[in-house]
Write a structure and sequence with these properties.
Chain A is mainly alpha-helical. Chain A has one domain. Chain A is built from 13 helices and 3 strands; from the N terminus they run αααβββαααααααααα. Chain A has a 3-stranded antiparallel β-sheet. Chain A starts with a helix and ends with a helix. The C terminus of chain A is likely disordered. Chain B is α+β, with helices and mostly antiparallel strands. Chain B folds into 2 domains: 59 residues, no CATH class; 349 residues, DD-peptidase/beta-lactamase superfamily (Beta-lactamase, 3-Layer(aba) Sandwich), CATH 3.40.710.10. In chain B, 35% of the residues lie in helices and 22% in strands. Classes of the chains: A mainly alpha (380), B alpha+beta (574). Chains A and B meet through helix 6, helix 9, helix 10 and helix 11 of A and helix 1 and helix 2 of B.
Chain lengths: 380, 574
């Protein structure tokens, strides 16, 4: 287990280091222009990074089972919903989306916290229900209802990408916990239909999707970002143009330091850089799954799976968007994109995975009868 | 404790995620390493900036170093019509700018009332002081461009020779046009890249060759002398209610043009508002029938051939001579005149008889040797060659008409060159207006040398002609008004009726006087032409006084003394 944990932590550390370097590369000019301080974004990110390190160190040393207590799980869920409701009421609006809560000079993104809250709540609920997940109410209605509420609130901000990630992760956790496939299919179809109708009612989202289908036709407007992200990889080629030498970050990609930072990595560092990032996320996923599978409890298993999937799915969707495989939506690349809330939440999740791994490792040292049970588990 | 029956579900999901990661890696490899050369070239090309940098244009100086044309830094006042429109300040801003820039408010308002546009010129080429005043007003949506404008400090003075540049800074008249390739300099090159907002990125310049400034041009003209000539012309035009007037002052020995002026004139700083007719340099571009001044060439040719002597007496038929059934008349009737007096009294009949002795072929040869019928090559755009038909195209009467300066057409410069050839011992010089061209490093790119074009007559003939021409300005000669106290002046008057449909006008004349001084050792050749003077119309009455006025000031200014101690300079108060 020690090896798996080391690889996980190593991968995260490399991504964070690369993230700070690339944030410097992409944001200096814009920061100087907008804030007269070239390190404006870098300083903030490092501050959030310290917060994230403290939280993840703390969580890795605390028994993850704390989150399995009903009061904690309920509290996290209720707090998430309350924060999301507060955003809809008093949030800060940027570019037409209300996603932030202002706390003095700082801003936090409740939808990031909700990712965490929902996964904890679902893991607790489903682990608690055990075999009763086969039933409709306990296995489908309550968990998917709770999930739908959060995803729906995020959708209203509107934050299409995050809402989809929360929905998909929650659905996967319910599926992995053993809910009836027939019910799940029914609920899934219903959810997707609802989702599609909501998307189609929104003219801007619809335009983005149409632009995604015909990028050349909308090259000057909707698909400008999309095409320029793809161009970044093409320009980068095998070797990349060199660190700091990107041309795409000079207003060809307006979100170069946040959602589209992966394109700049591809442009500046070439195929090696972008495949390295992809490989590191694959490593995080494999390690996360290994840890979850060896979790001493069913709750730990679902919790670890949910958190691993949250990180990986965000990375998948982000890279999918940037490489032109998915329509444009605002979603950060974990550990790399500028944005404090996402960084802190992702690091907290890594902390919990480490905590689960520690518990799994301790179990390895337990008396034989305990290990026998685990071995039998493996054989089946 | 894990629920073992559903382990496959997690494996299934993991496999899906791993498959997605693999798919993305394939996509990435394809984007990075795929066959995208064409796309890569296209992207690079759309981002490339290639700009030619304009060099400063060279200056134009007169012969003493006075600046006639130079580049000055100016501002272009620009505006953002969309912003003005949205902020609702369009009316107020347009009104304030119009008042400051002396523009019509309605015109400016119309130019700025484009709610969707982000750029419009308010006014181009505004002096920097005015630009600074506008800047201090701190108007939202008004901004500036740095630009360079051509400025002519002397306005109208010497306008036809100096010329002007158009809005694209290409020389479009005068020396500005003819020497454009020297003046314009070598453009530089800038190769760089642009950002997503289409602005050039200073830190990504790969090629930056600065433009080199154009070369300076030094004219042979003298701005002081030019001023005197132009003033004399202005007075001549107003005194005689003339349609126009032009004059040239040339250094006899070298062919350097010291002054060349034409009326009407224009201000090159405002060439766009000027009448195109006023832009014609009539001294080289106006072709007219010269009249009696042309007799100089005919008599010089006959003398040079030894067909007549100065003292030979010619029957001038008391004013009317029937030749081939057509009457030829003199302005004043004369009986018998010596060849010298034919010139002095300007007898048409006498000149015709002399020309007949030469015959068409010989006359034609001499006229062409004097430079008629072709451009002088003075080095200015728009020069005309005049009209001199070949002898085979002449009618039987032509030779008698040509002798008195009809059926031929010339430019004032051609006439002056002929007179200067007589003054210069028979050597016809090439006239020129540009002395030298010097680049910004001080290297001389071009230096004009005096050049002999032809030698139509012998020295002895030229000497004799000079003596005959002096008699024209003596009492009893047609050009007595050109006489100058303390100097001997050689010259010839000319009065030609302007050709109109089917004949000659009775009211419209071209009056001219061409001559040089001091006659004993000529320094300056001067021609004055006045177009349609009223009511006086003869060269002697109209052009000769202008000649005298110019000559008087020129000899003082240039300190030209009369040989043999006959006064000269400032001491001519006897």
């Amino acid at each position: 287990m020690w090896k798996t944990t080391s690889i996980l932590i190593g991968a995260v550390l490399i991504l964070i280091s690369l993230g700070i370097v690339m944030l410097g590369s992409t944001s200096l000019v814009q920061a100087q222009m907008n804030f007269h301080d070239p390190l404006f974004f870098v300083k903030r990110q490092i501050m959030w990074l310290l917060v994230g390190v403290l939280i993840s160190l703390f969580l890795s040393r605390v028994d993850y089972e704390v989150f399995g207590r009903p009061a904690v799980a309920w509290f996290l869920y209720a707090f998430s919903v309350a924060l999301l409701a507060a955003v809809l009421g008093w949030g800060v609006t940027v570019n037409g989306s209300t996603r932030w809560l202002g706390l003095g000079p700082l801003r936090m993104q409740p939808s990031e916290f909700a990712k965490f809250g929902v996964v904890v709540f679902l893991a607790w609920w489903l682990a608690n229900m055990r075999r009763r997940v086969m039933r409709f109410w306990e296995g489908i209605a309550v968990p998917l209802g709770a999930l739908g509420l959060v995803a729906g609130l995020v959708f209203l901000e509107p934050d299409f990408g995050t809402s989809m990630v929360i929905g998909a992760v929650g659905f996967a956790v319910v599926f992995a916990a053993g809910a009836r496939i027939g019910n799940l299919l029914l609920a899934g179809t219903l959810g997707l239909t609802f989702f599609s109708v909501a998307v189609m009612r929104n003219a801007e989202r619809m335009r983005r999707i149409i632009a995604f289908m015909n990028p050349q036709k909308y090259a000057r407007n909707e698909a400008f970002q999309l095409l320029n992200a793809i161009y970044a990889f093409v320009i980068g080629g095998a070797t990349g143009v060199g660190l700091g030498q990107s041309l795409q970050k000079r207003y060809y990609l307006p979100e170069a330091h946040t959602d589209f930072i992966f394109a700049i990595i591809g442009e500046e560092l070439g195929v090696a850089g972008s495949l390295l990032v992809l490989t590191l996320f694959a490593a995080i996923f494999v390690c996360g799954i290994r840890i979850s599978r060896r979790a001493p409890t069913h709750f730990g298993y679902l919790l670890g799976f949910g958190m691993t999937l949250t990180i990986t799915l965000q990375a998948l969707v982000n890279i999918g968007v940037v490489t032109g495989c998915l329509p444009t939506k605002g979603l950060p690349l974990p550990f790399i994109s500028f944005g404090g809330s996402n960084l802190v939440v992702c690091m907290a999740m890594v902390g919990i995975l480490v905590s689960i791994a520690r518990a799994a490792g301790e179990q390895d040292g337990r008396p034989p009868e305990a290990r026998a049970i685990r071995d039998r588990v493996h054989r089946i | 404790m894990n629920d073992l029956r559903y382990r496959w579900r997690m494996r299934f999901l993991s496999a899906a995620v791993i498959a997605a990661l693999a798919g993305l890696s394939v996509r990435l490899v394809f984007l990075h390493l795929g066959p995208n050369e064409a796309l890569r070239r296209k992207i690079v090309k759309t981002r490339r900036v290639e700009r030619r940098l304009r060099g400063g244009r060279g200056r134009i100086f007169d012969r003493r170093g006075e600046i006639m044309a130079l580049d000055v830094a100016v501002k272009n006042v620009c505006a953002d019509p969309k912003l003005l429109h949205e902020s609702g300040s369009l009316q107020a801003v347009a009104l304030r700018l119009a008042r400051l820039l002396e523009m019509e408010p309605a015109v400016l308002l119309a130019r700025l009332d484009l709610p969707r546009r982000r750029f419009a010129y308010v006014k181009r080429h505004v002096p920097p002081e005015v630009g600074e005043m506008i800047r201090r007003m701190k108007l939202q949506g008004v901004f500036f461009q740095d630009d360079v404008a051509r400025y002519y400090p002397h306005d109208q003075l010497m306008c036809h020779v100096v010329g002007f540049v158009n809005m694209e800074r290409v020389g479009s008249a005068g020396v500005e046009q003819k020497l454009d390739r020297y003046l314009k300099g070598t453009p530089g090159l800038l190769v760089s890249e642009r950002d997503g907002r289409r602005r050039e990125l200073y830190d990504r310049r790969t090629v930056e060759v600065p433009a080199s400034a154009g070369a300076d041009v030094y004219l042979t003209l003298d701005v002081e002398l030019q001023y005197m000539v132009e003033k004399a012309l202005d007075e001549a035009v107003s005194e005689n209610a003339a349609k126009g007037a032009w004059a040239i002052v040339e250094r006899v020995r070298t062919g350097e043009i010291l002054a060349m002026a034409s009326r009407p004139a224009f201000n090159p700083n405002e060439f766009r508002k000027s009448d195109p007719e006023s832009m014609r340099n009539r001294a080289i571009a106006y072709v007219y029938e010269p009249g009696s001044t042309f007799k100089l060439a005919v008599i010089a040719a006959a003398l040079n051939e030894g067909l007549v002597t100065a003292d030979e007496v010619i029957d001038c038929e008391n004013g009317v001579w029937m030749y081939r059934g057509r009457p030829l008349r003199d302005y004043h009737a004369h009986g018998r005149l010596s060849v010298a007096d034919v010139l002095k009294k300007s007898s048409n009949i006498g000149a015709a008889k002399i020309a007949l002795r030469l015959g068409p072929e010989r006359l034609d040869r001499y006229l062409r040797a004097f430079g008629f019928g072709r451009r002088t090559g003075v080095g200015l755009p728009g020069e005309q060659a005049g009209i001199l038909h070949p002898p085979r195209a002449w009618s039987a009467l032509s030779i008698t008409r040509i002798a008195m300066g009809h059926e031929v057409a010339v430019t004032a410069l051609q006439m002056l060159e002929m007179a200067c050839a007589i003054a210069n011992g028979g050597y016809l010089m090439r006239p020129y207006v540009v002395r030298r061209v010097v680049d910004w490093r001080g290297r001389e790119l071009m230096a004009a040398e005096p050049r002999v074009v032809a030698r139509p007559i012998r020295e002895a003939t030229a000497d004799l002609m000079r003596r005959l021409m002096v008699r024209v300005t003596e009492p009893g000669g047609t050009g007595w008004r050109a006489a100058l106290a303390g100097y001997r002046v050689a010259g010839k008057t000319g009065t030609a009726q302007k050709p109109v449909r089917g004949g000659y006008s009775r009211t419209a004349d071209v009056a001219s006087f061409v001559g040089f001084l001091p006659a004993e050792d000529p320094e300056l050749g001067i021609i004055v032409v006045v177009d349609e003077p009223q009511p006086r119309h003869t060269g002697g009455a109209v052009a000769a006084p202008v000649f005298r006025k110019i000559a008087e000031q020129a000899v003082r200014y240039l300190d030209i003394r009369s040989p043999g101690g006959r006064g000269g300079g400032l001491e001519t108060d006897t």
